[in-house]
Amino acid sequence: MSSAHTLQGFKRDGRIAIVGASLAGLRAAEALRGEGFTGSLTMIGDELGEPYDRPPLSKQVLTGWVPTDGTKLPRRRDIDAQWLLGVPASGLDLATNHVHLADGNEVAFDRVLISTGVRARPWPVEAEASLDGVFVVRTRGDADGLQQALAAGPSRVLIIGAGFTGSEIASICRERDISVTVAELGPAPLVGALGAMIGDVAADMQRAHGVDLRCGVKVTQLEGDAQGRLCRAHFSDGSTVDADVAVVALGGIRNTDWLQDSGLAVGVWGIACDSGCRAFDLNGLVTDDVFVAGDVARCPHPVYEYRFISLEHWANAVEQADIAAHNMVNAQADRWPHLAIPAFWSIQFGVNIKSVGVPTFADEVVVTQGSVPDHRFVAAYGYQGRVTAAVSFNNAKWLDHYRKLIETAAPFPPPCPTPDQPVDAKPVPVDFPGPVLLSQGATVVVTGHDPSERHVTAVRTHR
Amino acid sequence: MSETSTLHRILDYSARADPYPLYAELRKTPVALQEDGSYVISTYREITDILHNPHLSSDVRNLSRPTPAAERRDTPSFINIDPPEHDRLRRLAMRHFGPPCTPGLVTGMQPQLTEIVSSLIDDFANTQLVDIVDDFAYPFPVTVICHLLGVPRDDEPRFHQWVNAIIDSLDYDPKTDPPEKLNLGAQATDDLHQYLGGLLEPRHDRPGDDLLSRLANDDGPDGRMTDEEIISTANLLLIAGHETTVNLITNGMLTLLRHPHVLQRLRDEPDLIVRLVEELLRYEPPVHIVPWRAAYSDITIADTVIPKGSQIMLMLASGSRDPDRFDDPDRFDPDRQDNQHLGFGSGIHLCFGGPLARLETQIALSELVRRLDRPRLVTDPPPYRPSPVLRGPIHLHIEQS
Ligand SMILES: Cc1cc2nc3c(=O)[nH]c(=O)nc-3n(C[C@H](O)[C@H](O)[C@H](O)COP(=O)(O)OP(=O)(O)OC[C@H]3O[C@@H](n4cnc5c(N)ncnc54)[C@H](O)[C@@H]3O)c2cc1C
Ligand code: HEM
Fold first, then answer.
1. How much is the ipTM here?
2. What domains are defined for chain B?
3. How far apart are CA A204 and CA A377, in angstroms?
4. Ligand nearest to the CA of A295
């Protein structure tokens, strides 16, 4: 599809298939129509029903305030698509450009977008995972089941894994006045994503709200009663906890199994693509007709030394969908790179947590504004003297400023005082449990605002 | 310096009816140093950037050269305070005004707002000559804010005078203005303060529904405001609820009468009102300038370093007409997409009354358009109030059949 002529023809009556009909898939479809694509659009999704939003599933839905069918994604425009729902795609044939479906049907395409996202990592022992009262939370059905179990007034809920989802659910349990134990293998909640300093704050928050938080322990066994209902959990330190509900919140598995034989660059971190969302093949060559967006994508980010980054962020799915859609129907010269600085939010224990940048790409962290004891602050993350991320607790309105600092490779720690000066503004080691990413200092900065004008400029490395 | 003269021309009364060409001139220098050492910021990106910059202060006590009208009282209202105090006071006030603690307040007022609007229109429905300001756009939001606060509506003539004097002193210029202008403003501030104190006093230990009673008897997680803080807050809400919505409603009617096809569309598609009010907030906003912000420490913006202690003026209305942000910015287009105007400011001081002001204006304009019979402007442009900061017509005479 190199010449302008064929591109015009493709835009007019080409065939696009989108596999994975959720946030990224739907937004890409809308953006394609917005770009003037009038050809045929096929939405392939294994979930039944209209696309819905996931963030509320661990928040408002579990309080019972919002019914699960109240989380449908808003439609920004009519996408005039053929919807093939309820059947998963089982393969992708790039020799003939077909998507194979599990029911034996196939869908021909000129270009395809892969947005199959992530599924919840199940409890590893199948017999224990299938006990009554054991849940994961990824889908509407999952949240419905858990909501009902919480409404039934369990004696105690056990949360396995204190990442964002686990912590949010623990918070809801406390809000509903349900006893809850949180088991986390790391030294504190959220520590894998945000480091030790924030982890300590999160641990304080949980305990202050009456969570029985147990860090540095592993759940070794889920025990059922004679009726196959969960009744007890065993820990690696030999202790046990009686609980009738357990939520397995151990992160996600990227939905790439169906692409095993596709010849694309798939792995546990997702499908590798270029910053224009074009998938790489196994050789690391970029493909022309296969695009990737959302949680399943693994995309290099120039600000982070072109490292391939996988994100499970709502905003990233939306931004990548727009970029992918644009690039699917535009010529090489008009392509846009996906250069948005990652952003994420969570709400737990009455605190609005927000981050910009990649906090794991850091060696130091410093509180720049506000007060940590009051759970109202901003912390900046730095790597080798430049700002790479920031996290706010109940102070989200400042994060735009920190995004700018990240984009312009501003020096770390950020200088000059602000009115809301923290008591102790000394950088401390960021202290992630896993290996810290290594970096050589900034090589590029991002400029421009609209997707059409954003681009990267190389900078000379300072010695 | 040409920038200086541009600003002066904007502040001069002769520019009130149409300051927009001067804003375009101003935007040629996004961050413009003035003769007196202050900075004027006039482009969209630079305004939003600085409004999210934690080194920008709203507290005039951080100016190296205090402005003449710098609030003299020890307890400024939260619009003029920085975090953490700003956040605490805003949170305390918001507890009684919106989500998360009082989520239904504004939407719950809809029937009442419609009733007030209807009865005001009833009063002039059969009159040929109407002043949209005095007969409608002023009394409506004032009735609403008085009711919310618990201020007797009958006292309106008294505080109307005070509020006017305070607004007039906002753009006090020592070089050109007589000192009385400032003194009158200061006296009015004291009088209003005392008046509100008198209303607060009897409300202690008497729980009630109005905001003054609720603030006086609050026992939330952040504690309670001091009496001084309650008075400052009430003062702020009274002024903000008084002097802004009136201009949005009036500017709205004016703009519709200047764009008859849009007026006709609104008659045919009542749902257009939501987007139309957003576009008004961009195109003819009530708040044109945030006059006194201070650099708490050196601030770099658009390659300019604004030194610590400098006064910074934010030209919100100019930012909302910046062609680098809005296509065809001088066109009034209620269908505009991605309309992130600066009508309510941005950042932590983003207008607290936005949801109320929007609903008031939506109802007001919808009803006016529905009930006025072939309205025509009597004079265009209409006469304007003196203030370049809170800009709007002082009267808007229209004729109907
Ligand atoms: C409980 C929860 C809370 C969250 N909270 C937040 C939050 O507070 N903030 C935030 O930024 N992010 C949050 N997220 C993350 C956010 O929801 C995701 O980033 C977003 O859903 C990603 O969208 P996506 O379309 O890429 O993937 P998904 O939403 O995972 O959609 C992928 C779709 O593809 C389907 N699919 C998979 N395989 C196949 C196949 N072979 N054939 C056909 N269809 C297939 C899936 O069933 C699914 O419908 C949360 C996620 C969860 C689960
Ligand atoms: C159309 C009508 C209105 C407009 C255009 C408007 C505009 C604005 C603007 C631009 C600001 C920011 C000021 C700054 O950054 O310093 C602001 C702040 C504020 N407004 Fe409004 N306003 C309107 C109506 C109201 C109403 C009805 C109320 C009260 C009920 C109100 C209460 C406030 C308060 C309390 C603040 C200060 C917020 C803070 O400092 O955190 N406003 N308004």
1. 0.86
2. 3-399 (1.10.630.10)
3. 15
4. 1
